[in-house]
């Protein structure tokens, strides 16, 4: 296995005012100062991007957005483009989160457009995939992951996203529910994802691509998850909102 630097990413979802977000970002940057061998990213709401970018200036914590549009500009009320996110200080963008798919009509087709646009804008795309509880009960997990990966990465070629693509496996039934996939369930899904990535992008890119686990990640379970060979980090929801708790996850080693 090629050495992949773990990435611990915090998705702040629809929480925190700009003032609260800037305060907590500064606190987190201080708490993880000097931590080596792990990358850290936080994704606040659009309204908080600029103040959080300012709060993180000079720190090793990267800034991400929670969504983007696939066009660079235009009559798309309420949307932000890749170049706008880049100009606001973002290096990453989360694409295809299950909440976007569930509540806002995100499809594999729009995910694909957004990933292409993100890479074009020089952003690292965090592609979210995962099955529902019903799909897992029907033993369709691997079929769902296969389709979401192949459709989401359609016509995205090796070399077009060297170190710019991150995949986050988030079983929908584990997001915000307190349920977590067992370490072995998570590893099985991650190993399968890497196998599909090898088909799509080639073995070298598949080996170097980081695959994160998301779904009720906490300080108590991060070390066990990270001990698995194909789990390269976490996309953390609720536990990322408190700087102290999130810093404990970052310091899992």
TrEMBL record:
The keyword Amino-acid biosynthesis does not apply. This is Triosephosphate isomerase. GO terms for molecular function: triose-phosphate isomerase activity. Belongs to the triosephosphate isomerase family. Substrate binds at residues 11-13, 176, 216, 237-238. It is found in: Cytoplasm. Its EC number is 5.3.1.1.
